[in-house]
Specification:
The chain has 237 residues and is an alpha/beta fold. The chain is 31% helix and 20% strand. The protein has two domains: 89 residues, Arc Repressor Mutant, subunit A (Orthogonal Bundle); 121 residues, Nucleotidyltransferase, domain 5 (2-Layer Sandwich), CATH 3.30.420.130. A hairpin with a 2-residue loop joins strand 6 and strand 7. The C terminus is likely disordered.
């Protein structure tokens, strides 16, 4: 199984991998191949009722990738239903989620996890690379059991991913964040929910209820800002 540069997480393999009309000669039936990650988008969006942003975050892909996979999957399933062809679910480029930190949204109520939020004066700080504090929440069985504010000691964005990893963080909620920091967090196995804002405690509670408002496409490049531009409530200066 080949893996892309950015792993597509799949949390459940299909129970049944092949479907075909009754009383049909399989040797003469056209076969439609549905990849495992295409199946996963159908499971998340149509079966579990997640929106495309939530599905994108859980699978560790962009919203555009989810849209492409989802549209392809639905087109293949419609052909299977209308044409009476054979449908096989197999192949693709994906990684099974073997640990809670790789599928935090799905497994957040199943075990202990630590969630970090970029933090300033009770709010979600809007520039990851300049955050001076994280608020870290310990969650058990989907409920916050403790929280603490930790200083970053002036570390830059390149070191913050390691700082979080060393602290046992599995999930990060933040405002704006740059591409380099995204890559570092991905390599550390930390699930990212960018584009959040408002009261930090409230955002974590919303996350645990599956209602967090965030934008997986949120980017913040300090060096390319035009004068007067800011990311969310805070400037990136």
């Amino acid at each position: 199984m080949a893996r892309p540069g950015k792993s597509r997480f799949v949390c459940r393999m299909p129970i049944c991998g092949e479907f075909y009309p009754a009383n049909t000669d399989l040797q003469t039936t056209i076969q439609i191949m549905l990849s495992v990650e295409e199946y996963e988008t159908i499971r998340l969006i149509d079966y579990e009722g997640k929106n495309q942003q939530e599905a994108a975050a859980q699978m560790n892909v962009s919203r555009a990738t989810i849209q492409t996979l989802y549209a392809s999957a639905r087109q293949k399933i419609s052909r299977f239903l209308v044409e009476g062809t054979r449908l096989t679910i197999d192949g693709g480029s994906y990684e099974l989620c073997g640990f809670p930190k790789q599928c935090a949204f799905e497994r957040k109520g199943d075990s202990t996890m630590k969630i970090a939020v970029t933090y300033e004066n009770g709010q979600v700080f809007q520039h990851f690379g300049h955050t001076e504090q994280f608020k870290v929440y310990t969650v058990e069985d989907g409920k916050i059991v403790s929280s603490e504010i930790v200083d970053t000691n002036g570390q830059g964005h390149g070191a913050l991913a390691g700082f979080l990893f060393d602290g046992g963080i599995s999930t990060l909620i933040c405002g704006g964040i740059g591409g380099g920091a995204r890559n570092a967090l991905q390599e550390a196995g930390i699930t990212l929910y960018p584009g959040a804002s408002g009261d930090a405690d409230a955002q974590v509670e919303s996350f645990l209820q599956g209602k967090l408002q965030y934008d997986p496409e949120t980017m913040c490049n300090h060096h390319s800002h035009e004068e007067g531009h800011s990311c969310g409530e805070h400037g990136c200066h």
